[in-house]
Amino acid sequence: MSTEVLSIENLRLNFNTEHGTLHALRGVDLRVGTNEVVGLVGESGCGKTVLGLSVLGLNPMPPAELLEGSRILFKGRDIAGLNQDELTLIRGTGVSMIFQEPMTSLNPVFTVGEQIAESLKLRLQREQTKKTPRSGSASVEEDVLDALRLVRIADPERVAHRYPHELSGGMKQRVMIAMALAAKPSLLVADEPTTALDVTIQAQILRLMRDLMREVQTSILFITHDLGVIAEIADRVAVMYAGQIVEEANVHDLFIEPLHPYTQGLLASLPRLSDLDREIEQLPGSVPDALSPPEGCSFHPRCGHAMNQCLTIPPKLVTPRSGHKVACHLYQK
Amino acid sequence: MQPLLSVRDLVKHYGAERATAVGRLLRRSEKVVHALDGVSFDVSQDETLGVVGESGCGKTTLARVVLLLTPPTSGAIEFEGVDITQLPKHEVRQLRSKMQIIFQDPISSLDPRMRVRDIVAEPLVATGEENRDLILQKVRSILEKVGLSSDSMNRFPHQFSGGQRQRIGIARALVCNPRFLVLDEPTSALDASIQAQVLNLLRRLEKDLRLSSIFISHNINVVCYMSDRIVVMYAGEIVETAPTRELLGKPLHPYTQTLLASVPRTDPSHRRSDEKIVGEQPSPVNPPPGCRFHPRCPYAFEKCRSVRPDHVTVGTDRWAACHLLTG
């Protein structure tokens, strides 16, 4: 389909460690359409961050290793095998990323304005072949202020001259978003962008991201462990478990009628203000070790519905309902 | 009935000691962090009191001061009718067997070089228990209660998963049979599926062992699930307290309303659309005059900028500190 910004096909990625081969991604298929927010949700160690980093080619290789047949199509072009120079052209202009920790992602010895200016200048250099860049520092400065205004910072002149440590967590994350969006990327990979923030600030940032997506025309791959945040922002959701996508659906379908036992278990494990009388349910056990994931369905040791075939045969992603995919033997014909 | 714990006008200012003694000597104005400013509440027998608020509002300071892990600047903490801030040191040490704490981070709160049995036995040893057989027996029985097998006794913390480590922390807190427990973000470092295991375990233990507790978390869903009553903190003060259901049903303070409205719903068909929330929590070094929430409050009027609001009692068991309620 031509409307896809990102199409990941059979992505398999290992980390070769001294303890053995760590199977981080085990055949991931995922698509992000134009102006779509795709939520990628899963618990620690499920591979969601590695998947996000793969899209920008940021996993260090070695120890990371892409396996044969893995494809990452960005606007139809396979970027999985590109070298660093070619990737640099895509990073920041085609795909941008924001991280969980705004404190460690910003350089403490430069002002916020200088850091935004740097990313703007790099973008201009890259685009020089295409069109004549606007020259002179005055225009860059104006662009920096525009970038800060875009993320609703009320006094951009003052903030531009601040160092990161002088800003609050919420302000830093706004600055990160400003930097990421300054280059008007087609795709934004946001890895737990609100996890380090307080809940009222999180609400502000989520609202900002939703508004900006429309203004800048960016698609978002939103990575988080928080199903509540997913419900607030995503159009479509992919649930990851042990390096695989186990369920994928429209956000409403996923929350109203989750199909995979893991998704059902996750949703039942959350306390909810609207239903405090309900005893939360617990999934037994813990996530499997990526060095030696279980045979068959990787969720079977924790699954209440596990059958014989679950122990040996890995379930394929099937579509029992329109637009709703699930990898579980309960739904295989 | 008399409450088990009764806290009155508790104040904790960091840097205040220096400001008075050394600071004056050096004629330098030291910055004082107003971590707690006049906090009062009760915890009844068998009750779990939840504390919610955002980072820097004073939640963790409250946890530490109530257990005298750090001394208060002023105020009274009555436990079983005795003001523990006035007790001599050796009596405070004895008190520790009745009041215990569970920390957020199960990795840094367990000594990596100690075996589980020594970690769990430590509070017993610290309060003067010398009978080794009795200690081992108590350790074994509490480990069983928190769902760890007895062969875990000889292992080290790194050999356990995050959820299991938190169980070790719980066992250590409960081994000397405390009456009162402070839980400071006990599940915040855990994944959702593991968090549910630990929360259900804590709920069961609190009921079985008839524990009273203060449950602190930034996660409002979790606090409300665990607590009978809630206090809402903002910038070092309690702005509202109410039984959990009443608070959720009708939050009175504008900050409580904002906070509850900001919690993600886990329901995509009810997304928030109209946030009135602006700005961020003020600096504890220089809190605003009057009501500390006034710079962010959509209803703020003249009085809010200068006069600190009193506690206004509403109904039988709740109050809020807001000028809107006095009319």
Structural features, described:
The complex is a heterodimer of chains A (333) and B (327). Chain A has helices at 48-55, 84-90, 102-105, 112-127, 137-150, 156-160, 169-182, 199-216, 227-233, 251-256, 261-268, 308-312; strands at 4-17, 20-33, 37-41, 64-66, 71-74, 77-78, 95-98, 187-191, 219-224, 236-241, 244-250, 317-321, 324-327. Chain A has 333 residues and is an alpha/beta fold. In chain B, the strands form two sheets. An eight-stranded mixed beta sheet of chain B has the order 6-7-8-3-9-10-12-11, with helices on both faces. The longest helix of chain B has 17 residues, at 192-208. The chains are: A alpha/beta (333), B alpha/beta (327). The interface between A and B is large, with 43 and 41 residues.
Give me a quick take on this structure.
With 333 residues, chain A is α/β, with parallel strands linked by helices. Chain A is built from 12 helices and 13 strands. At the A-B interface, helix 8, helix 9, helix 10 and helix 11 of A face helix 8, helix 9, helix 10 and helix 11 of B.
Helix content of chain B: 25-40%
Distance between the termini of chain B: 33 Å
| Number of separate helices of chain A | 12
What composes the largest sheet of chain B? 8 strands, mixed
How many H/I helical runs of chain B? 11
Largest sheet of chain A: 8 strands, mixed
**Residues in β-strands, percent of chain A:** 15-25%
The N- and C-terminal alpha carbons of chain A lie at a distance of 27 Å
Count the E strands of chain B. 12
Structural class of chain B: alpha/beta
